[in-house]
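To whoever is covering the structure queue this week,

Two jobs came back overnight. Logging them here so there's a record in the thread.

Job A:
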Amino acid sequence: MPARTARFVPLLFAVSLAASALPASTARAVPDSTLPSFAGSVTSRSYDGDEDDLLTAGLGFSGLRRATPPAVADPGRPTPAELRRWAVWAAAGLSGSDAGGLGRLYGPNIGADGRPVPGDGRIAGTEYTVTAGTGARGVTFVVQVPADLDRARPCVVAAPATGLANVYNAVGGAGAWGLHHHCAVALTDKGMGPGFHDLRSDTVMATDGTVGSRARTGPGAAFDSGLDDTARRRYDARHPYRVAFKQAHSRQNPQAGWGRDVLRSVELALALLNRDWRKGAPVAGYTPATTTVITAGVSNGGGAAVAAGEEDRSGLIDAVVASEPQLNLAPLRGLAVEQGGQRVTSAGLPLVRYASLASLLQPCAVLAEPSAPGYTSFDPGAAQRRCSGLVGDDPRLIPRRDAARAGLRGLPVLARKALVRAGFQARSGYLQASHYDPQTPVSYEMGFARASVTDALCDYSWAATDASGRPAPYTRSQLAAAFATSGGRAPSPGTLIDDASLGGPVADRRSIGPDGALDYNLDSELCAYQLAFPDRAETSEERLWARRVAQGLDATRRDGNLHGKPALVVHGRDDTRVPVNHSSRPYLGLNSRTEHGRSSLSYVEVTHAHHSDSTAPGYDNRYVPLGYYFQQALDLMWARLTEDRPLPPSQVVRTVPRGGEPGHAPALTRAHVPPIVPSPAPGDRISVRSDTVQVPG
């Protein structure tokens, strides 16, 4: 481990714990063994690596490979242990075919030597669960300490959850990598997670994942809507069967706390290690000076890892590794992005802006790509009506003059061109159909604006639905499984509802417009677009909410200052969820400018890779897994920290798709996924010159 300046993060006042809550130390506790003052309830459980364990929740790799989730004794009342096991199974994702490389070339069963781990992968150790705050302000942390922790050269991997998912979401990625390297792992849900409040039944989720009535759960709830019973019943009478969820309706803007939460997870890990100080550990205890700390995440988790790197000014973190990070950037102020010598027309937009543009344009653009996955889920007539609804004076959509030249049949091509003008890669046209998701921009807007569920911005709400798409009550088992099955929005199978649809509220994709025809809820999507782009707001109410969205958004912006920390970011060029032009590319430029050319950030852009590693037909033959490069990036950063090897320079890695027919692609081999190299060819180098990020074509 490289020499480091001895800097200590102060641990605040201790939280008293029952003696039975933590395992007894085999040696004296070091002086700095108190827990931070933000820590609330703390529980611990030791796993013997047989009946249960840290990495596979007792399933072993064979259990993680099963196509169906682990069984629960009572689907209406799964236990915390059953929910944890289910969540770990879902996070590992090993149930798919290994033809795409998962479980064979990368994944939770791949060890430090790059090969599959012998045996079934169970790892003994102690797992601590800690909550900070309560209800809508609550954040959940899990710290895993393997029994084979390298106490002489300790390390911590902070792995925030991706997306809006539960606290175990990263255990199969950065968490598994950390455990294989004998590190403690610090997980956090970043203040989001699957907390919900079913307003009809007054059911909420507890912090342990179980569900029950709000009255019985009390302060142990992970989230509730904040409505008293009178207001709740009044709203339910007008809008029956709706559900509130934490990301959109907590009124806390949780994304603003991502960096803080990751830093807190590291503080907790160090404090808990010190409480269990044992022979062979550093004499001074586990501190920033004695412990190697990497924060690593994917998508939202990658954005949280970067945020922690920026907000860490006391030397708590050694390095940052991020894959496809979702970043809301500070204004670029003259910073430009070029690809193949051509300037990108739009760069550095925050998610609510590019996502609201995408959701408007995608139902039209899909008509230009009938072979794309997801195409058959669209109604051609409704999609064509969406095309017509985009024609107007807005240069971000389809200008009238261009529409007149192209004619009705040419509008889908113009919509695809508008997506490229908006910063999406031209090659991502094939992915637009499968990425249509209007709930993303509006749910983030509600979070930024600190909206209540009763505010129902743009006439949106969430509910389970019946066969006709109308809001319907959840079953007990659907709510009970939400900790493991929900992606962090409405509990599965909940969906976005258009409350203003002609004929009454209905699932958004079945929305009927004022003319009586299916239109994918153009009015509400235009509303979300107007909230994201304040210059489009028309009414005083829209301007008010747009200002609130903008204020919340500003609290989440990243300025590129990592304070000289080594960082490695990998991103798929064809990412349609978090486009490279709005995230990693301009962030490289911001970091270079902010750190005055003395940046320690390397950026690796992978061709033929996008935001998920799906091997579904149509993905399998065209794309390679970005997860393979995330794991490689962690290995490279480990070599940088422990062996003082330099990070590779910023570069494009040119991969080879598997080919073949959709659904019948040959198995992925290492020939398809060449490594990140220490000396890329001149035509593959990414550079920053004169405030311009230059990416080879």
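Job B:
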Amino acid sequence: MQTIKQMMKDHSIKPIWNSSVIGIEKEGLRVKKDGTLATTPHPTTLGSRSFHPYIQTDFSDVQLELITPPLTGAKSINQWLPALHDVTYHSMNDEEWIWPLSMPGSLPEEKDIPIARLEKRADVAYREYLAKVYGKKKQMQSGIHINFEFDAAILNALYENQTDITSKEDFQSAVYMKLARNFLRYRWVLSYLFGASPTAMENFYPSDVAVPEHYARSLRNSHLGYTNDEEVIVSYESLEAYVESIQTLVSSGALSEEREFYSPIRLRGTKQVKDMLNKGIAYVELRNFDLNPFTSFSITEQDLVFVKMFCYLMIWLDEETTAVTSKTGDEKNHLTSIEHPKAVSQFKEEGLALLEEMKQMAVHSGYEKAEAAVAWAKELFEHPEKTLSAQIMDGIEAEGDYIAFGMKLAQQYKQEAMEKPYQLRGFTSLEMSTQLLIHDALQSGITVDAIDEHDQFVKLSYGNHVEYVKNGNMTSKDTYISSLIMANKTVTKKILAENGFHVPGGGEYQTVEEAQNDFWRYQHKAIVVKPKSTNYGIGISIFKNGPTQEDFNQAVKIAFKEDSSVLVEEYIAGTEYRFFVVNDHVPAVLLRTPANVIGNGAATVKELVDEKNQDPLRGTHHRAPLEKIVLGEIEQLMLKEQGYSTESIPEKGTVVYLRENSNISTGGDSIDVTDEMHDSYKELAVKMAEAIEANVTGIDLIIPDLTQPSTIQNPGYTVIEANFNPAMHMHAYVYKGKNRRLTKEILIMLFPELSKTIKGE
């Protein structure tokens, strides 16, 4: 049979590296500040583990397991692991951290290590069995499992260029079997490069276990790690032999069930092993990676690049005799794992030869990242003091002890996650309301697929229930016509007026000349000039004392830059409030103060703006709770009305407003007044939403006194507009008052069956 290497060379079959499918399962212990286990229950905010697709627990309630979906490219590393870590950190107790090392810190007595509290009794019983057979402490070792699937196009191309195996499924299984056999033979290379468990706490191993007196490369990957008994031997000679071996071990009682087989590599694709005989192997699970404590998410993109190359190398290489493969691999892996971290590898020459072969394979494929990955690995073989285990050894000695070293990193990584809690790392290219929605969906166990990140389009799934969301709150619950109504301020105003609500008077204009010729109607009146169909306060000018002809003409031009129609409306005195209406109730009311700076008697307006924009809560394009202030045409017009310019130096304590409109999206400040607002206005906002047939809307009301009720005799309000796709981030992290998580309201509307989970009840 022509070898895979020959087929790839002879037929110019090149691995499409970024199309390989990767899924990551990362374990980590929850600990307290002193490095001891946080024996509190799994956070209730993370919902039920019986269905959660992303955040689970392994053996114990304190052993988190973060699971990425299967992904191509490096999204599992650069997008999903960061996001899942953020969600987990935000859901944990304030006084808890995630331990960054594979070997645990200080452990209590066996009896005090809690088994996972799960809904299914069978799952608990299985863990009780493991505790009895292997001991609870051994279960506290944590690592990373990588699920790897070859690019389908590569497998198809290889299959079509051979004639020995007629079934595509059988050929695919044969390729994965070869990967598994060579992986077991050469996995020692991974233990050398990625080994990161050089030591354990004094009380971790039983007193009768012989432990190296020196630091090691990877105790977890040695014979001292979490392994089956010696009698558990599984053949990888063929898929049939693999299945038969596991079935025999289960029927004999050597394994309680199939999942108790703890090989460094497992064949995957079906729930039961026997079904792979018909359906074939879909992917492999690689289980021998320690946590890398020097990166926030325990694995790096370069690590993943090397792992993908290693998997391809395993099918590229020829094989040794099957009978010696596993035994030789086990011996070399154990010897490598217990070597001193700074010792030169006993098998350095074999390792360098493999890397040279990997380089040749990568040259054939034209993989641009290969050179750096191979060079990195060669550097570690030449300089063992640069390996992870050696660096950990140095870190422990520098900090004084193992716990201090681990907690220093644990605190650093949690601090990084909490610095900008309004952002979801990995998804920061999305607008903030969408980030918040994804965060809350992940937290609740709703499956998320960002199907078009550029267009802010997200698919949410729970079982067979699927919902699509655009821009955070545009959903199927609102009809197309309702969004069109809200986009057209004239239509909105007419519908609300017809339903008895108080709206401001004014006119609509289709050309600049038409509007400017009507200046005489407004020259002595307080007015607002604004585009007809835009949100976020863009293009709005307000004149409380009546405009000059020049200023009116400029305001009209500014508005026409944003739309083909412009409204000029009477200015209503009072305070403007944003009522967020969702699903027939008002969970949040916001007072927005216009963009402003406060003089200090020394700095110019421009300098004051620059200083205020340094606030970490301020950003751009709705990626932060508050928007940065700009000094555009409207702001400079506003300054002119007050007798200022951008170079003016306001007196100390003087408030200088840069906008009349109070939108957060134009630099305003947010103040939550939900609890202070009289309920009569909330009821009115709900009725207004009903009138325009909107399930989600932002109703803007001018109210002189929020504490006085609205009555027929004294309505006490004027409605300015209704907004489709109202921003939610400005309610989530307010400048002053109580934060309101409106994304949870959207999820409850979409998935009422999960309302208790979403609320964290």
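Note for Job B: The mean pLDDT is 93.

Please reply-all if you pick these up so we don't duplicate work.
Q.
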